[in-house]
Specification:
This is Methylthioribulose-1-phosphate dehydratase. The chain is of the alpha+beta class and 202 residues long. The chain has one domain: 3-Layer(aba) Sandwich (L-fuculose-1-phosphate Aldolase), CATH 3.40.225.10. It contains five helices and nine strands. The chain has a nine-stranded mixed β-sheet, with helices on both faces. A hairpin with a 3-residue loop joins strand 8 and strand 9. The longest helix is centred in the last third of the chain and has 21 residues. It is globular. Bound molecules: 5-S-methyl-1-O-phosphono-5-thio-D-ribulose and zinc ion.
């Protein structure tokens, strides 16, 4: 595969793990290849020290195309990555992490949106305005993950989000970008915004 992104996914997962955003196997990362298939972390792997065979390559229909270790199962949240890649043709990476701060956002949500502070950092989510009024879309968490994916599809087909990020209540953030490098930056920016919101209410 000429653009195998697994080493980059491994390095970002390790970084996020060290930040405490992927502890206890939490979170999942994926990146799309030129042929439209995507590598995604296999389910239940510790994210601090992933190996190249801790992934599964899937197509947009949710079929496993390649599994370096026959015991690997796709991430339990693959349906959310499929939804993002189907909705956004330019998305080539989709990252999801669980931070304490993301889970504490519950009390600042208005309706099904999280208002973001109008600070310089939102430029990192593609918003180039002065005093931007931007919100992050929020979704309910269901045990049945495909139901979360379905609600994402229905909502975004109706209205595109302001930013390439969404928050699942009491669960964690998901971002997408045209490259793994940008997805990594966007996770860092989303987590910075959560910390800012919490600190500004102290
Ligand atoms: C503490 S793991 C929680 C999981 O159910 C899930 O939310 C998650 O992010 C990781 O699932 P995975 O199947 O390893 O990709
Ligand atoms: Zn999760």
């Amino acid at each position: 595969m000429n653009n195998d992104p697994r080493l980059e996914l491994i390095s970002s997962a390790s970084l996020f793990y060290q930040q405490g955003w992927m502890v206890g196997t939490a979170g999942n990362l994926s990146a799309r290849l030129n042929d439209g298939s995507f590598w995604i972390t296999a389910s239940g792997k510790s994210k601090g020290n992933l190996q190249e065979n801790d992934f599964v390559r899937m197509n947009l229909e949710g079929e496993v195309l390649e599994s370096p270790n026959p015991q690997n199962c796709p991430s339990a949240e693959t349906s959310i990555h499929q939804a993002i890649y189907s909705l956004f043709s330019k998305a080539n990476a989709c990252y999801h992490v669980h931070s304490v701060e993301a889970n504490l956002m519950t009390r600042y949500i208005e309706g099904d949106n999280l208002p973001l502070p109008p600070i310089e950092m939102v430029k990192g989510l593609g918003i180039w305005q002065e005093n931007p009024l931007v919100t992050m879309p929020v979704f309910k968490n269901y045990l049945n993950v495909p139901q979360i994916a379905q609600e994402i599809i229905e909502r975004f087909q109706n209205k595109l989000p302001d930013i390439p990020a969404l928050l699942i209540l009491e669960h964690g953030v998901t971002v997408w970008a045209d490259s793994p490098e940008k997805a990594k930056n966007q996770i860092e920016i989303a987590e910075y915004l959560f910390r800012y919101i919490l600190a500004s209410h102290h």
